[in-house]
Amino acid sequence: xxxxxxxxxxxxxxxxxxxxxxxxxxxxxxxxxxxxxxxxxxxxxxxxxxxxxxxxxxxxxxxxxxxxxxxxxxxxxxxxxxxxxxxxxxxxxxxxxxxxxxxxxxxxxxxxxxxxxxxxxxxxxxxxxxxxxxxxxxxxxxxxxxxxxxxxxxxxxxxxxxxxxxxxxxxxxxxxxxxxxxxxxxxxxxxxxxxxxxxxxxxxxxxxxxxxxxxxxxxxxxxxxxxxxxxxxxxxxxxxxxxxxxxxxxxxxxxxxxxxxxxxxxxxxxxxxxxxxxxxxxxxxxxxxxxxxxxxxxxxxxxxxxxxxxxxxxxxxxxxxxxxxxxxxxxxxxxxxxxxxxxxxxxxxxxxxxxxxxxxxxxxxxxxxxxxxxxxxxxxxxxxxxxxxxxxxxxxxxxxxxxxxxxxxxxxxxxxxxxxxxxxxxxxxxxxxxxxxxxxxxxxxxxxxxxxxxxxxxxxxxxxxxxxxxxxxxxxxxxxxxxxxxxxxxxxxxxxxxxxxxxxxxxxxxxxxxxxxxxxxxxxxxxxxxxxxxxxxxxxxxxxxxxxxxxxxxxxxxxxxxxxxxxxxxxxxxxxxxxxxxxxxxxxxxxxxxxxxxxxxxxxxxxxxxxxxxxxxxxxxxxxxxxxxxxxxxxxxxxxxxxxxxxxxxxxxxxxxxxxxxxxxxxxxxxxxxxxxxxxxxxxxxxxxxxxxxxxxxxxxxxxxxxxxxxxxxxxxxxxxxxxxxxxxxxxxxxxxxxxxxxxxxxxxxxxxxxxxxxxxxxxxxxxxxxxxxxxxxxxxxxxxxxxxxxxxxxxxxxxxxxxxxxxxxxxxxxxxxxxxxxxxxxxxxxxx
Length: 833
What we know:
It is built from twelve helices and 43 strands. By secondary structure, the protein is mostly beta strands. It is elongated, with a radius of gyration of 30 Å. A hairpin with a 3-residue loop joins strand 41 and strand 42. The protein has an 18-stranded antiparallel β-sheet that branches. Strands 7, 8, 9, 10, 13, 14, 15, 16, 17, 18 and 19 form an eleven-stranded antiparallel β-sheet that branches. Strands 3-2-5-6 form a four-stranded antiparallel β-sheet, with no helix packed on it.
């Protein structure tokens, strides 16, 4: 959902469709036949300032120093010197004369040798020393970190500025500047600054960051923007084999597998900060792979990186991102220690990758200073994770920022704060901002109250017919210590109102002790998932989808009340205990939940049958999510969209006799999900669910294997099963799915340009039913359990038109069951990078 924010910005800006350096040059590198030459090395003569041209041979280069010539070089050919007749005002609109200046430059861009290549000899030395360089040389380290994130609208032209969309907001264009990476004009629209104290222990493999200050322009209350920013920019180590950006795994140019995907050329050597360094240029061997182009300087004795510049290739299979550019600089301390001091990353988000398309720059600058080493902290120090931050962190005075900024803001960055404060008083901007916010969060914002979620407004099922739903929540800010939510729904066929209301209150901010409770009366599809919770306001897509496959009236009226208390005893480890009471009744005359309270006998062959279930239950659950990242410190937090392991255990106890409760039982449920990134081969997810109920229970309390009678792909369901096709009181499911990320299609020439992505998967379930539970079944629902293992497998194609995925699923067992679905086609929509 957070990715919709980005696309919403594109949508708004598509409706519309200066800092001075001393030397600016833009151009295109051509061969003698006037064909563009990709990955040419272009530098200012007499400097280390350069860039590698893109796949179309284009480049932009800027420096605050005046230079008079460029050097254009490539392996196997003579260097070409190009004089610069003007030292100032070379911008992206001035293309170096292709015929008169660059048409004689011959650049070799073929594959380099994997043998007798001095660049590869140096690369192997880097591999040997990479765990002995930088912070890895010390047992402990600590430092200060300053991070600045900025978003800018780019490719601003006069027609764009005059568009009626910006009526009343023309003053913002006084802040238009020119990028020193791409040469495009841009308009700053957002900036966020943060300062941290960082501590690390290489022996314990622990890192802790304490935020000491945060300042955001204009959008302090918008949790979605903060979460979106964190999603975009995850931390990375250039020495790692694979670098993760936008949920994609890129092969690092310093990777041990780099030889197979990159060409390397030893281009130069020179002193940098009194250290002799080699310059190596790299560019990809094949198109459509997640690789970079660029160059790096490496020391000749420590083989530590001194400086690296790299940009993603234009053909890389990634959506909505036209360019990614990265710079890292390392400083030398104590003659042999190279420490990262500056990390800069810029992304160009756009609807398409055309050169002149408008988009949004996302820029992150991270600076490090005041390094200290081998100051040991007790292990307890790293275990005391920060769950709450005082609001004073977000309200630091100007004096704090003057002292703690590692580098001063330029005049355009400094002006963003004032400009956005002014902009938010403009009615037109408020309207545009509201549109983006609604699409991003699903809520319409009012003062201290949000209406929604709007995406749950309409639904359909056989009992209710057309169903409409309206709701809202309190919202005073991202760090609210309490929140109340409620909804009401109405079915036009059953002519009944439904409702739900819940509240949460965080009574202890440090340990995140939260008390919650609520009540819901609604219609539900029992068996939509195996691992269940007592979420009062959960929306069951199975019972409220607009379109479904086949007939399904097996719905249940539920009246659920619960009270619980939870505590985050350790970072990402949550313990919750609670009690609940529910009543269950069939919502349809064609479906029965009947059970025997007295079994049939010879004297009473009909037995005694009950139709409703009244059940009190106590439960305790444990949830552990290592590496989960969250935004905010209120009673509800947003998740950073980054893969993490998820382990969940729930123990439930049926309290017979409490509030006339019908059954006594014990139930255990376990859920485990493990994402696995397999470098260039993509990412797998392995999901295990298992559970067992001890005691005698009716159909309404059984574990129903989740089928999928919608047209959409739903995780943790079986695409070829109908609802209630399999029922169990003990079960184990295992599923594996894998996203190749387009690696296979990229090797097929005629499919390469489609940028489609491949998915495969398989899932299975084993389950049984006890004789006692079979005996009390008085419903019209046959009890079938997958005692011989039910399984199915699937293959899919994603990234169709960048937003659509289609999955084909085949049934692998129980093929002869009456009404068995042997083949199914499901689809899903989503905005994926």
